[in-house]
Design goal:
heterodimer; A: 283 residues; mainly alpha; Cytochrome Bc1 Complex, Chain D, domain 2; 2 domains; three-stranded mixed sheet; B: 167 residues; two-stranded antiparallel sheet
Chain lengths: 283, 167
């Protein structure tokens, strides 16, 4: 019989009762509020997929899934990436411009994927990569923005993010981003759904344990967009949020909703220091 | 607030406690001999004794252990093996989030097990285990599940009847 690890985050329990004031006050000092402290070092050969206590979903994936991700020719996500590569230099919209017209070669995007989501002073709101790309379409190209979960937007997001592969995630939560960060953290710790679970119950408290056949990872964002074998398709981080909400019988929120945008900032920040893996493969 | 507290005339010697989202923490500290009457929308009222147990059957009837075992495994009902292991060898992949259910009939009374299923947050406010008989104080519930408990009275009784056989 398996033994259970009993972790009793008393302080956090009290914080939850007080409406999270405790957790919020200590936002960045005590990482154990955000990530379950790891008792084991990263497995040999996978050290690059860990940073401090943060562990990429890659570490929890099976050997087969990892192999698929490691080889760009095998990785099914590259069907989308190849289309995006053509799209990069295809002029569109009333301005008859392509991405290339403004940015040059796609390699110029190196480093960009590592710092999103990011507060944009011009529009006074948080942008993630998907929203940033769609702003380029509507403003720069005067073309219709792509639908959130469309092949085009998923492919282009992957192509742009891929230029930062291996670079550490490095999102900022200072200045105007702080408000979004705190809202995202609050959502992460709030019980929702008929099953009354918060993200943190599965991805912090139970990280490393099995729910049936599912090994619970930290729910890190560094691999997104991700090709999920279950979806047979590339999918966005917000699609994953919707899935995790749905599994506990919680109402799914809209892709790009203010709640999921704030959540994306918080979840991505938890993985600061992990390597960008997009497009990753998960089961 | 859409829940009511039933005051009992003879309760002067007992503690009465409002039962809502944020007051659960207090309930585990209830004095011995306390009774708490809980009533939530669409559910039959029940009484928690000492903050540790619900001695009376929710349905007023005995449970059926054979059906209880099925409900415990069923993915759209108890789905308890998500988190617990149990001596049910024909099922693959038991979770290891929670204590094994083997021997639970020795460790706990039927009333204690019943409270565990009805609302484990009374015992541990930070537990990942869901309240199987609760409709109040939840957020962002899918439309199709609003106002419905995870299990009905008799289903809870059936699972209690099965667990008590795990000695």
């Amino acid at each position: 019989m398996m033994m259970t690890k009993t972790k009793k985050p008393i302080a956090l329990a009290v914080g939850m009762l007080l409406g999270l004031s405790v957790a919020t006050a200590q936002a960045t000092d005590d990482m154990s509020l955000h990530i379950s402290p790891q008792s084991q070092p990263a497995p040999e050969g996978l050290e690059d997929y860990a940073h401090g206590d943060a562990r990429s979903g890659y570490i929890y994936a099976t050997e087969e899934t990892r192999t698929l991700q490691d080889d760009d020719f095998e990785n099914p996500a590259f069907l989308w990436v190849e289309k995006a590569q053509e799209q990069w230099s295809t002029p569109e919209g009333d301005a008859n411009k392509s991405c290339q017209s403004c940015h040059g070669d796609v390699e110029s995007m190196k480093g960009v994927g590592a710092v999103y989501p990011k507060f944009d002073p011009e529009i006074g709101d948080l942008l993630n990569l998907e929203k940033r790309i769609n702003r380029c379409r509507s403003e720069g190209m005067q073309a219709t923005p792509w639908k959130w979960e469309s092949d085009e937007l998923l492919g282009m997001t992957s192509l742009v993010k891929m230029q930062s592969r291996g670079m550490p995630v490095n999102v900022s939560i200072d200045g105007p981003a702080k408000e979004y960060f705190e809202k995202g953290m609050k959502f992460y710790n709030t019980r929702v759904g008929q099953m009354d679970l918060a993200c943190k119950h599965c991805h912090i408290d139970q990280n490393g344990n099995y729910m049936r056949a599912e090994l619970l990872s930290q729910g890190q964002a560094n691999g997104f967009p991700t090709y999920r074998l279950k979806w047979q398709k590339l999918g966005s981080l917000h699609r994953r949020f919707r899935g995790c909400n749905n599994n506990i019988r919680a109402e799914k929120l809209a892709n790009g909703s203010p709640e999921y945008m704030a959540l994306e900032l918080y979840v991505t920040w938890r993985g600061n220091g992990l390597p960008i893996e997009a497009p990753s493969v998960r089961k | 607030m859409n829940f009511r507290i039933f005051k009992r005339k003879l309760a002067s010697a007992f503690t009465l406690c409002a039962f809502g989202g944020l007051t659960f923490g207090a309930s585990s500290a209830l004095a011995e001999g306390s009774l708490m009457r809980v009533s939530e929308p669409n559910l039959k009222p029940y009484t928690i004794v000492d903050g540790t147990s619900i001695p009376d059957s929710l349905s007023g009837k005995a449970g059926n252990a054979v059906n209880g075992k099925k409900l415990l495994v069923h993915r759209k009902k108890g789905n308890c093996l998500t988190c617990h292991s149990a001596p049910i060898l024909e099922e693959e992949f038991h979770g290891d989030v929670a204590p094994p259910l083997e021997g639970v009939g020795d460790r706990m009374s039927a009333g204690e097990i019943r409270l565990r299923l009805v609302n484990p947050k009374v015992i541990n406010p930070d537990t990942p285990m869901m309240a199987y008989y609760r409709t109040h104080g939840l957020n962002q519930v899918s439309k199709s599940f609003v106002g419905k408990p995870m299990l009905n009275e008799q289903e809870i009784e059936d699972i209690v009847a099965y667990l008590i056989t795990l000695k």
